């Protein structure tokens, strides 16, 4: 197969920056792109657009936020308008034989985002409303209204979710056999087992009788590109699909695509992200999140959890703690989901709570921080979450809050991501997120030694009390990786004080038990320590505080 950038334009050959014109985009559409704030193509757009304008099947693999949607939408719109103009010259009406292109997305949010971008590109053209040229077909919306819109508007482009598109195709309202283009956005997700039945129908029917010698054009789009996705494309008759990927020399065979799919996932991440993790027992995760949101300085955050059923409770807990947030999950209807996203985009709330379903393709340029309140399943899911921040080369933070027993997973992610991706451990200290340094660790070891010496010496005639916390890494300077706690007694009762003074009852070093401690700045723990460990029990003195 020819490479996706083998026919580079003269301007690029001369070392000039690529333009929409050099990519082959018609002047009118290029002017519209400039009006929309995209005066020139991004690197992935400059590589993808020429191949797609020529009708070649392409797999686009690029980090989230690099401009993949426009990379395929611009050529799809350009070719659809050209086909409509040709049909008009022959006396036919645009869309008479069904849509020119069908775009499939795994989530309603992503589908509607694509619809809005397509409608913006078309605008109002020659007295016709471009909004009617792009039609949504998503689950959760009224199917009778969708059927009526398909019949009335005869759109050039239909964008939807797999189940609803398959239902409309089966019902006969959506005529797909003559479609020239099939786009699978977030192709890895669409290859999942839960989409097997509707995707099987769409792959078999969309473009079955596409006009021209080339037949149906297939476009795969993903920040990550799994081997099984390319295998599915080959099984559907696109074994020669071309690859456009960061650092790739262009499209190649499926074999080359497999090698790219198996390469480090780090290439799929926006380049200006900082990756960090904070070790804290699960029971303190919400408070750690609240304080991290404030300490990080991010203006708009996306917080990820694994299960939709936990999101409403998380929303209530964070709101009760003073965090301005809203959740986005599958249990909400179309209006509720739209309202939640609108609040976040307008800045009415600073934090969006969501799970994997809401992560796919969600485009919120204002987001500059991603917080994993629960660990993603693997590196590939980490990439999809992290990509919500740092879009279009902006800077962003990705902070993973992890229980001590699961801290090893961070190293696993680092290996899976490969490349130059590094995770730094941080602690909450003096209201800031600070990187754990060697000096901090040295101070921690020294503090632990001093604590043991003080404990062994006893105090005030009190007998020493040994427990598991004696062997924990109780590090005042570093954030109490041991989870050892010392209360600070009130009125002189209980003299001990640790770097992490917890809400649970601690112990003083003598003269009675320490009272309920203050909540300290440090939230970093070791998996081997038991919370609320005893540091020493005094004699007859009363309880502190």
UniProtKB/TrEMBL annotation:
Record key words, sorted: ATP-binding, Helicase, Hydrolase, Nucleotide-binding
Comp. bias intervals (Gly residues): 535-545
Annotated stretches, region: Disordered: 445-545
Domain Helicase ATP-binding: 49-243
Pfam families named in the record: DEAD (PF00270), Helicase_C (PF00271)
One of the record's GO molecular function terms: ATP binding
Domain of life: Eukaryota
Database matches in InterPro entries: DEAD/DEAH_box_helicase_dom, DEAD/DEAH_RhlB, DEAD_box_RNA_helicases, Helicase_ATP-bd, Helicase_C-like, P-loop_NTPase
Record-given protein name: RNA helicase
Species for this entry: Prasinoderma coloniale
